[in-house]
């Protein structure tokens, strides 16, 4: 991290939001795996928006936790909303940090992937590439989030271990910079 910690008045909760862009929710599951810290967390943190409470609106939060890569224009829009409304932005997991699994399609090109998935693959019954205007447009390349917005903290791993979330939340609560041990910084 290279930024100021969250300053707050006594009794004031730290407001957190999270989102899953092109991700599998595995990072969210790991975030929920923080065991007894949950008790501390509910005293000090307020979860404002995200898949855990299904709230979509996002306004003035302290910390935004972003899982997943950028696969489509909708992902970019959500990410930009997060950056505009969060003091600190945390990229969690391989997908957000370097594209991870979704970025494997970059090796083949978008057209080839669509063709394989919707036209040529074994078992396809109605070969047609979806073109509904309601569907978000796919990006030509899957992108990591720091290619589009500034990121304040990175929690690597697939998913990052619960201990890394524990350290992040404890540091936020204690008003200090997080310090991640070697075993929390995993790339598997
Ligand atoms: Fe899922 Fe791993 Fe991506 Fe997290 S980093 S969203 S666990 S694939």
From TrEMBL:
Keyword Metal-binding among UniProt keywords: yes
Superkingdom to which the source organism belongs: Bacteria
Organism, scientific name: Pseudohalioglobus sediminis
Descriptive protein name: NADP oxidoreductase
Cofactor list: [3Fe-4S] cluster
InterPro entries membership: Hydrogenase_assoc-protein, NADH_UbQ_OxRdtase-like_20kDa, NiFe_Hase_small_N_sf
Keywords recorded for this protein, A-Z: 3Fe-4S, Iron, Iron-sulfur, Metal-binding, Oxidoreductase
Pfam families referenced in this protein's UniProt entry, alphabetically: Oxidored_q6 (PF01058)
An example Gene Ontology molecular-function term: 3 iron, 4 sulfur cluster binding
Keyword Transcription regulation annotated: no
Residues covered by the NADH:ubiquinone oxidoreductase-like 20kDa subunit domain: 24-171
